[in-house]
Amino acid sequence: MQKLGIIFLFFFLGSCQNKDKSPFLFFGDGFSESPIFQFQYGNAEEEGNLVENTSSISFESGVLCLHSLPISLYVRELGAKFRICWKTSIDVANQWKEGFLHLTEDSNEYPTWNWKGKGAEAVLTEYGKWKKDSDKEGFLLEWNSQIWSSGLTTYQTFAIHHPLFLQRTKDECEVIFSTQTITGSPNKRPILSLVFPCPDLNEISELIQTQNDKWFSECVPGEPNVSELFRHSESSYQRFLEWENPKETVICPRSDSLDWVKDGIRKSFRSELFSKRTKLILPHGMVLFSDDPGLFSIPIPKEFLTDLGTQTSVLWGNTDYHDSEFIFRQGTEFFSNQTNSISCRNQYNFWNSKDLFCGNPGLPNQLEKKIKEDRPPSCQAKQIQITEFYPGNHFESQFPIPAFFEFQNTGETCDGSSLQWVFENTIYPLSAEELILPKGAIFLITRKLWSGWNLLEKEKPFSIPKVVYQIPNFHWENRNDKERVSYTNNPTFYHLLRLNTQNRYSIVVDSFGEHPHTRTLASSALLAYGFQMSPGSFNVGLVDHLFTELLEYNPNQSPFLDFGFTGFEEGVVSFQRENGNTYLFWKPSEVRFQTLATSPSPCNGDGFYQLPDGFFSENFYSLRYLSKEKGQSVVLSWDPKSIKERTLGGTHSLHPEPSPIFFSRSILASDHCISDFRSPGKEKHRSLEISRWDGEFTYLTNFPLGTQTEVRLGNNSNTIPLSLQTSGTNIYLVNSGGPFPFSIEEQLYSYFSDPSLIQPRSFLERKGPVQIEAIFPNPKDSQNEWIYLCNRSENPEDMSSYLVEDEASTDELTSYQSRFPNLYPFVNGGKTFELNSTILYPGHCAWVVDPDGKDWVFPIFQKDSDLLLTIKTTQTIGNGISSGESIQLRKKIGQISKLISSFGHKESFSPFRIPVTTGEFLWLKTGSDGMSPEDFEIYREEF
């Protein structure tokens, strides 16, 4: 290596230091009035994270020193550093302090500043002007970005720039102190140029070589870890990626390349400067990559940093860093993503810019500046409580109100920049600078700033769906120790905030729980447009929980609920589903009927609250709410399958009625849906519904019968009129003056006709002695149909006098052996039948089978005492029983036949059909009269 014959003084520092002023108290007599260059390498005088002295100038005992780093960093730097010292006066010291102060100014024009001393001179100028003159002048030796032009490399702990050192001639050297401000054009940034007598650089080079050899002999193979990253073209910091050696030892990276992997694509970065500056990394040393030359980092093309914050992977040797989603710009503030973050107010950043920026590229994240004693302490996550949430009214709407979360500081006054809000796995630091939150203060995290509202707020680019029903989950986290306090919503609570297509209400959180925002405490400015919320205001107050009634329910196309109210009350209404989910909405004073639906529909009109998708599922079968009529909580339940049948093919919505009627039907034609009867948000017009009541010939209605009601008794053979008399509220019984002119065995129906009935109504008033209790209309083998009959009277019945009738033909019954004397049918399970008898005793049953069938499969309730019957011809069951076809059982009395039993009840006003698939049979439920499809169970053939 080239020997440089210039005097060098190496000054080893002692331990006597003054942290508030200068680390150098005793200089001895080694200083003169001419500046002396002192170089250090491999020596750090202090440890710790508190940066108290950020000045690069010290003046003590008549000695002025200019340091290559702010003094608190200088004493912690293990790598290359220097200072230039000389004896001088306090006036000269103040002049230099003024000169360094000019380096912090952001101006297009800088004042004239210069200094001349013994054998030295200095001037304040712009970098562009100096660079132009410097290039003309040339140099013998340069130390720039830790690389000496002679080939030597020095290493440093902190990845921030040191002053540029130049040897101009054999006797003259120059040091360039640069600004710490990175705003504006680099050529326009101010610098201080100090020209002074050169030291002997030979000993410096020997010291560097010796220390490097020592470190290389001690270093442990390994790579650093990512400690900080940033990417935003609108920030002065542009893009950077910082790595840190987390160990107490020197490490030697095994790789001199960085690899990026994203979406299966891999790209690598190498450079000569990268290789030279990272041969070794000092304990807790920093390595900074950036495409901005202003940071004095290792230059790297922009293309390698454009994916930072987008879930990319960065590899340095064996270190694999998996990047997370991060939003670097949040409102008007910029944040770097740090692995060991601390309070933004407290963190020491070497660089200055116009940006509101939280980060410290090139320095350990844990470095803290000294905070004035009169400043409040850092906030803790546990003292922040949510008070209100509004999901926003999206910006394509007429009222583009931003989404916000409102919080309150429940503790003492504190600085909020120590906190970060974690939402949807994304970190949102609260503030890039000190944010004073007084005790009890209300503040917002908002999607967009509320311009002109004078709120304590922070803009954050979080996303909220158009329709939400709960306050989304989130965390508050201390930036320093990562202690979290979580808000977790109740997934069974649903706040109905969306009226028509706009979110009109916020959710308030207070000591009573959560509820939609009341009108009384809402912002008057927003209330004028129909929105109930109070951003930035204290909103705790009493909430009225209202009684209501469910007035209408439509389970079919465009389903909805309608709740009704009696007066001008206002408050919160809640109801609960069978699955435990609770729903809340605000009832305005002017509303009498409130509609709830899952989506907009012309059928349901305007003014509906939006329910979650899937609310009207097949599992929806009950509601609990505070009933105004009952004065207490009531439960309304129904069978989801049968309730759809009550809508008559989905054409009529339903109105709840007391048991046993349960539901009436709407008779008001819809204004917008042809052939549909519904009345969302309107007065209700109910159908007349009649149900059997306790006692013979006793009936219950949902409202009083009128003069147009007609009632008859009988069947297709004959009917007679009946007169009714009242026996209580909406209770009626038949007023009969004598016996009815019908056979005692004959099955009879009542027939009700009234204009308010959607369909005439019949009830089974009397059954015959033998009843149809099961039917197999559609077996796999088509000839194996059967009908199951039972004698439910007290007398034996001769079934040879009975007829079976379908919708086309009638056949007489006979015993199986009478028709087939030589056949003995196979019966599963080894059971038998009575084959040669037609006498059906009380409590006994019979099977009427297709004469063309064989090897019938019978249910498990078949008994050995059961009769096996068939028909004399093949006109009815012999031709097959069509699925859904009605079947009548008749008895010959003299020259005529009387109706005894019926499946499908075609002779009544209430006939029905039950279609089944192949292999299914129908069985009458115990205790049912068989007048509706719900009275039958459906079973498969695999008995």
TrEMBL record:
PROSITE patterns: PROKAR_LIPOPROTEIN (PS51257)
NCBIfam families: lipo_LIC11755
Protein name, as recorded: Lamin tail domain-containing protein
Species for this entry: Leptospira soteropolitanensis
